[in-house]
Records
---
Amino acid sequence: MLKQLIFIIALAITLAVFAYTVSRLIKLFSLTKPAFPLKDWGKRFCLLLKVAFGQTKIFRRPVVGLLHALVFWGFCIILFGSIEMVIDGVSGSEKSLSFLGPVHDVLMAAGDIFALLVGIPIIVFTIRRSLMNVKRFSGTEMKAKSHIDAIVSLSLILLLMVSLLLMNTGYLGFHRLSGTEIKGSYPVSSFIAGLLPGFSVSGFHTLYEINWWLHILTIFFFANYLPYSKHFHVFMSIPNVFLSRLDPPGKLDNMESISNEVRLMLNPETAFSQVPAGPAPERFGVKDVTDVTWKNYFDSLSCTECGRCTSVCPANLTGKMLSPRKVMMNLRARMKEIGPRLVKNGKLFSDNKSLLGDYVSEEEIWACTTCNACVQECPVNINQPSIIVDMRRYLVLEEGKAPGELKSVFSNIENNGAPWQYSSEDRLNWTKDLDFEIPVFAELPAGTKPEYLFWVGCAGAYDDRYKKVVRAFAAILNRLNVSYAVLGKEETCTGDPARRAGNEMLFQMQAMQVIETMKKYEVKKIITTCPHCFNTFRNEYPDLGGNYEVVSYLQFIESSISEGKLRLNSGKLKGLGITFHDPCYLGRANNIYSEPRKIIGAISAGTVEMKRNKSFALCCGAGGGQMFKEAEKGDKEIFIERTEEALETGAEIIATACPFCMTMITDGLKYKNREEDIRNLDIAELVMETMEI
Amino acid sequence: MKIVVCISNVPDTTTRIKFLEGNASIDTSGIQWVINPWDELSLTRALELRDDPASGVKTVTVAHAGPASSEPTIRKALAIGADDAIRVNCEPADAFFTASQLAAAISKEGFDIIICGIESSDFNGSAVGGMISEFLGIPSVSSVSGLSIENGAPVFTREIDGGRESLKVPVPCVAIVQKGIAKEPRIASMRGIMAARTKPVRVYETVDTDCLTEIAGFEKPAPGAACKYIDPDDPARLIELLQNEARVI
């Protein structure tokens, strides 16, 4: 009876403290902004099974992944026993769930085995963290507090597992010696009990009681310690996976408040007049915690500082200040600092500090290439780039601040419709001296409706090297008698570089203009060589009313090959090794991995993969607006890191499929003095070189 | 203190200029108009001073002589941060006409410093700034590449041969500025764009003045010859080309 009373008091305290923590959290969440609408429950459920319970993303690092998965699965199984202990404690019973019969037996046995299978990895983790120098456990954001926090959590888990085994051992020993019924089977504890021959009935009983209390009280303590530690992840990661952003990672969220403004500006009636546009948003973009969405904050609470994101971040790998993990940790820390005071004093309270500026520096956010390697890697589906871009949005839209080169890019896009300063009159220069005609929409006879719009893109129109690529692809289209046309002088930047550099206003102005042009020619299908244009059309234009069937030239070439329309002569490049560099905006952003490999496979038998390939591929360094600006301070250029990796393969040809990647890899080859013996070719050029006429 | 920045509305630098029949006027169809780059930098510097409380600059006004169709360019200047604008409703004909219209309108408004870009990227006449100061009978300094305010008085910096010159000039005065006046042009923030819609633009009608010049015709420069690449291992070929083709040595 006394035991019951003590237990109930302990449980009540635990629940009360936990309820206080939850209520505090709810108040902090109420400071945040809405995120995407929650729907697609079926999809979410599948994701939950796959990513959370299947631990698929953890397994991207198989060895350490298995250890983590054991801990995770172990927790799930052992949870059943813990529930039973709580019921036992309240009701004064023993093994109250044993009425479940064989199910109970299996779960008890599994729990007993998993106590060992969790305990061993925890010991490995502790040794790994404290004695081995694992790079991703260090970094500017990893202060002593983070390490202590980790060691405390690991120790508590180890204590839980040891006490569980000893509790089971005591239980077994007591019932064996007293000849009473044993409910459930406990293979590991049975072995341990066998090692304790000298124990008496009361000895086993004491062992049981001590460890029963130790185990349950540790659980109670742990449950209330977690929300204040990085290990809150134990509670948050499963819901975080369930609440994942389901959009393709390449898609940036549309800013509806900007759309309204742009519509007013593009309409001559309202461009220069006072219009009731509704209340302007408090702030464009993210400056502080009140500007983030609840999902951003949820992400930060789910982060357990594992550092997988940072360990694959191209900026971080090359010595730049950006660390995606730090951004998440900063958000959480800043909320911890200012959140309770905002709750108390109202949302307008200011301590003259902010997330952007005092926690995350501008240098950090301008280093991001939006390559989505961090998103791909995060085991709990945190989205780091979205908040990074939102901080850029704040700087550009609210403060008119951006690196100088990007400001020029903005003016160029605004004035001449391309990130570079070239006249739109020159957009068709790439077609000069071709031995076939390039059909242009504006010049087509009335009533002609080409099947495809071939979107050439600014690099295709103006970059001397990349012009050769669009010429090659046009030759392929011509060879296949595809019905297509280009926009020529009517083409303008899709707005992609502006959007990724935070200038949402300019992006939407461009997008709405492009959509108007598309309407004029009733464009339904777009084919393009540029992955950035491809991603923007496919994933971002629908938000602004531009719905098209968007095809990457790689998908198109691959299907032409597999349908037998296009035959490649693999003899022409015989014996030459080809390695393919995955562009982030085809690969991670849009899951196009197999098409380029099938095409290259049809060209040459000598394909070699780089160490980091497909979803693991390293960015060339040009995404997210980096193409147009100097890299932030670091100890290496990203393009050199990637070129070195490509050279390590020993391939004679580095195949690319993106104008920016091409610029970067070509520069890398020049830097390494390898431009003489190694060729950097686009897949379109390889196909043109080898196609049979 | 009040700064007036004169802005000219010019074709974007990537524009391919075409002439109308008789080559006496420019075909303005399809031209993307922008703020003259010198004026854009002047505006940037003026706004930097206004945003620094220590400078004592309270307002920045942009002044433009041109038709209603140049409104987007004026709004762009307002979006970048100018407080208000004046526009003389006219078709600017030559430097004398433009300067007299601007001088008349600005004198009605009141000012301390007038900043003009040293030239505009369309006609590159380099005359309006000096003429405004003459019309108003106030001092002007040309080729200014730095502007600061010390103890309520402007200090102009000029690049001179082998060094730099600082000048103190009493207000009111005209600064005719070079590109070094600001590092890079300021871009419009979203708030700026939203605010620009409702910032005041005061329109003045023209004052009587003469046009002193008349455009007789335009012509385009001959297209540049293609660049020739010479193998670095073949200096003889370079010498041969320089001697016989370019005839420079």
---
Amino acid sequence: MDNAARDARRPKLRVATTSLAGCFGCHMSLLDIDERLFDLVELVDFDRSPLTDIKHCGPCDIGLIEGGVCNAENVHVLREFRRNCKILVAVGACSVNGGLPAQRNHLDVGACLQQVYQYREGVAGAQIPSDPELPLLLDKVRPIHEVVRVDYFVPGCPPSGDALWKFLTDLISGRTPRLSHPMLHYD
Amino acid sequence: MSRQFLFDGQPVPFEDGQTILQAAHAAGHYIPHLCWHPDFPPHGSCKLCIVKVGGRHVSSCALPAKEGMEVESNTPEINGERRALLQMLFVEGNHFCPSCEKSGNCQLQALAYDLEMLTPRFNHFFPDRPVDASHRDMLLDFNRCIFCELCVRASRDVDGKNVFALTGRGIHKHLAVNAESGRLADTDFAADDLAANICPVGVILHKRVGFAVTIGKRKYDAKPIHTVALEEGE
């Protein structure tokens, strides 16, 4: 059997992605693999992801998590991914070390909310939003490995499209994913 | 015939008084380090330069080379220990590279790349360390301090000003400014002091020059630190 026939018989891997306390920059970087997206969809099907708009994660081979954990909903989503994904990957600075959202960690959450919603110029009489639909903020923003077990980490703000492509193709083809200079960077 | 020792199985010549690190660098073998600087005596605090000699861990910046030593440095075991030291440094402070002016020129970051540190691994401390922007030309961002004492040593031994000190013990250790008020503006610190230009990380920064060099042209963008350091004698 030649390689093409073998690849055609191999079931596609199922991949889910989400952005927690992130800016979707890492998802944009994933789109930055450009025409290699056509190669990627030959290899994988997407489950829950901003790309599919599926709302909940089913059983998957790979889960890609962008962003850290800043509120209660992030915790639930992250745990749903961990329950369903054989391999969970922290993608980008925020999921690896908290990143930009974690810069609030030395401030009191209540004081932060008051500053933004009550004390800012031009918002006289405003209140801190308290709709029960809104997820409660955690006192500190956490990287995802402080909440669930994480199998792989891809640092970068964001990781480049090339870095994500190298990582995913390594992982999908069964090699140990490896990013070395200059694909490994934290900024 | 010059005397030599074995460094990762390779013969390395040395002169009397040379440390393992000095001799290895002279022979083109890089040993990771943060608190060591070629112009200062060894400090031995960061432990990044640990190597194994005869099965024992030693600081290669401090131990004089001896005939016939067998030194292990670039091994999975030692590099794993170095990576763990870096991970502890990263979680103990606030090292947020994307917003740091030193990014791309930072020894801590460059070493973490070189040792393929993909995750901080431990739980973060997220300490509260306010910055000191009081000085006209210089900024102190204590969030990134790794306690190498290079600024302390440079200010005391070269500049003759004693501007900096480490104070407190254990987890309470921190960099302090030697002024009644604790503010940098109330010292005779100047932008051309050696202490203002020796910080290996992003604590002591010059104002009004941040992000002047574009990504791709910074010190460690094109080549990894093990190459740059040997080329520049660092």
